[in-house]
Amino acid sequence: MMRKLLLPILLLAAGVAAAKTPDQLRNEFIDMMVKRHGFDRQEVKRVLYKAQLSRPILDAIARPAEKTLNWTAYRAIFLKPARIQGGVAFWNQHAEALARAEREYGVPPHIIVAILGVETRYGAHTGGYRVLDALHTLGFHYPRRGAFFREQLDHFLRFSREEDIDPTMPTGSYAGAMGMPQFMPDSFRVYAVDFDGDGHRDIWHNPDDVIGSVANYFVKKGNWQQGQPVAFPIDKVDGDVKALVDAGARPSLAPQKLAAAGIDVGAVPADSKVSLLDFDTDDGTEYWIGLDNFYAIMRYNPRTKYAMAVYQLAEAIREQRAQTLAGKTDG
């Protein structure tokens, strides 16, 4: 019996002993950047020496809003008149670039604008943390997802070299998301585009590059389906639909399965795959039918509340702009 009790304790002790310290992880990272990507060892050391450990970053990542707010409270953050009007203003100001992005990528302007509205309020709040500090802190002092953030630090140093950017200068979110669209470094390297042709990919200050980059992301990462709907609200759900919700947000269900549960699927294209989405509100559970383009928004951020906020903000911006233009025409 004693041997059975000791075995888990010994295994736990061995795991603790095997855990690598931040210094060990940092040295391994430096070795990798030198051997795999041809960086100068002393230069990488100098850059990492300038990084600062940030306790607020560790605190912030432990309490994302998506996990603490219900849909009523979360929606209220983004579906405000000022944010809707800001989206209309951004669309009007950059209508030419947005129209070009729709022609070239098939992503409608209101979706691109809403992403920027949710992420950074159209560039007004891009984050005040140095990206280097965020990725260093989370890469070497946040064991639960340290490997992911070290990979992002790898991409960050590489694109700083590729774009000739001082790695101590870019700022972003507590998680290292950057610029107006809040791209992580790997997304920047793969999806950011020089949409205005000036030889640089600038997602901090160049709205044209931002618009093209978001559209490119939606097509290449999200597999956006041009001209297809995003989601449909459900007026009434009777009975137990837990199994349908548990099938996940990625569309995998035939509409007939929802119809068999008493859900109206008349507006859904017959050959579509769908998902059943539930949202906890102050007044009970709200249900939606999600399609491929809803899941495309989730490839930007894999939370259903986020994707629904983007979609509803996009629709509000589109409707407000249409009303404004109609009013000017009538006048």
Description:
The protein is mainly α. Among the domains are: 21-62 and 126-210, Helicase, Ruva Protein, domain 3, CATH 1.10.8; 231-290, no CATH class. The chain has 17 helices and 5 strands. The chain has helices at residues 2-18, 22-37, 41-49, 55-61, 65-68, 71-78, 81-93, 95-105, 109-120, 131-141, 146-163, 185-191, 207-220, 242-246, 255-260, 292-298, 304-330, and strands at 129-130, 171-172, 231-233, 275-281, 284-290. The strands form 2 sheets. The chain has a 3-stranded antiparallel β-sheet with strand order 3-5-4. It has a two-stranded antiparallel ribbon with strand order 1-2. α9 packs across α17 and α10 (131-141) packs antiparallel against α11 (146-163). Mean pLDDT is 91; it is low at 13-17.
Can you identify the CATH superfamily of the domain at 21-62 and 126-210?
Bacterial muramidase
What is the C-alpha radius of gyration, as a whole number of Å? 23 Å
Distance between the termini: 88 Å
Provide the structure class: mainly alpha
H/E topology pattern? HHHHHHHHHEHHEHHEHHEEHH
Ranges with pLDDT <50 over ≥5 residues? 13-17
